[in-house]
Design goal:
There is one protein chain. It contains 14 helices and no strands. By secondary structure, the chain is mostly helical. Helix 3 runs antiparallel to helix 4, helix 4 runs antiparallel to helix 8 and helix 11 packs antiparallel against helix 14. The radius of gyration is 20 Å and the shape is globular. Its main location: other.
């Protein structure tokens, strides 16, 4: 169980890299109201992640007890839905998610050295499958959604028979159990974190910072780098979920999470400042970007060799950059001092 003292330690860790808001924001009576909106919305998102992770765990067990193409299809669907549930709340980079590198446990990425593939190959070469406890004690490259993606989509694992092998099934079950345990603990700890979050003014800044960092990461790393738009050559292996070609589906989930979970509290802050138009513009931009992503093909890597699909990705890249710029402008309007942009030394 997380104690109030640990909550405070997590708070100091999570806020250490932030430039604090000016006194005008911290004194704003709407700041606690915004944090109340955010806390409830984030709690719902963590609950959805927990539920989806439990369904994924059950789906893995069902497949291993009766391997079939139908059960594999359901397993793949449940895996994707759980990963999207994580993406929707990924912008929260403070509080209980910081404990034991939980974000990395959910998703080890970037993975420039293919550590996930090497870890999975190592486990698959053993004589016995690991337990969930062994996975929990191992590297984060052995945990989370990318590790499951390897088991479901790597070329060496194609076909129901390959995944149904005792070592592979046992490894998959251990990973899904660890994921469900992590998601459940995260939901419980966020509930306990509530009073500290709602009562600590600097978490208004932390929440804004988390959303901005999510947009920056989406723009530069999740889109820009694999597309070759940030100085290097295009490289599909730098994209998330490149094995399954579902990168854009994860981006769509992240935008939906910002729209449904972050925007309501932001609207509260801006309405109190007499700037509802800023929230409306930001919300409209989020909606356009999300709808655009929903209409696109699911993968980033395949689009690199397709002119029309690449052009669509470029449009999404521009939209995300505009959203990032809008949120920087909003931060200044809310009284943030220089440094709100996390690229200035986060």
């Amino acid at each position: 169980m997380m104690t109030p003292r640990l909550f405070k330690q997590l708070g100091r860790l999570g806020l250490a890299a932030l430039t604090l808001a000016s006194a005008s924001l911290l004194a704003d009576d709407t700041s606690p109201q915004a944090r109340e909106h955010w806390h409830q919305a984030i709690e719902q998102r963590y609950g959805a992640l927990n539920d989806a992770s439990e369904r994924l765990e059950a789906s893995a067990e069902r497949f291993c007890n009766n391997a079939s193409d139908a059960h594999r299809q359901r397993l793949t669907r449940d895996w994707m839905e759980a990963w999207q549930a994580w993406q929707a709340v990924r912008f929260v980079d403070f509080g209980p998610i910081e404990q034991n590198s939980r974000a990395w446990q959910m998703q080890f990425w970037p993975d420039r050295k293919n550590l996930v593939g090497r870890k999975m190959q190592s486990w698959l070469a053993r004589e016995e499958a690991p337990t969930a406890e062994q996975i929990a004690e191992d590297s984060v490259a052995s945990q989370g959604f990318p590790a499951l993606e390897y088991l479901l989509f790597d070329d060496s694992m194609q076909g129901t028979d390959a995944l149904a092998q005792p070592i592979a099934c046992g490894l998959m079950s251990a990973i899904t159990t660890h994921l469900a345990d992590t998601a459940g603990a995260l939901q419980r700890d966020w509930q306990r974190f509530g009073d500290h979050y709602r009562g600590t003014q600097s978490y208004t800044t932390a929440t804004l910072h988390g959303a901005l960092l999510a947009l920056e990461t989406l723009e530069t790393k999740r889109l820009g780098e694999p597309m070759g738009l940030t100085g290097g050559s295009a490289n599909g292996y730098l994209a998330e979920a490149w094995r399954s070609e579902r990168s854009v589906r994860l981006i769509e989930a992240s935008l939906r999470g910002l729209e449904d979970t972050f925007l309501p509290g932001l609207r509260t802050l801006l309405n109190a400042r007499g700037k509802p138009e800023l929230a409306a513009e930001f919300g409209a931009g989020l909606d356009r970007a999300r709808q655009g992503a929903a209409e696109m093909a699911a993968g980033v890597a395949p689009a690199l060799d397709d002119r029309d699909r690449f052009r669509a990705l470029q449009g999404l890249y521009v939209q995300v950059g505009q959203l990032r710029h809008q949120l920087e402008t909003i931060g200044r309007e809310l009284g943030m001092v220089r440094g709100f942009n996390s690229s200035d030394g986060d």
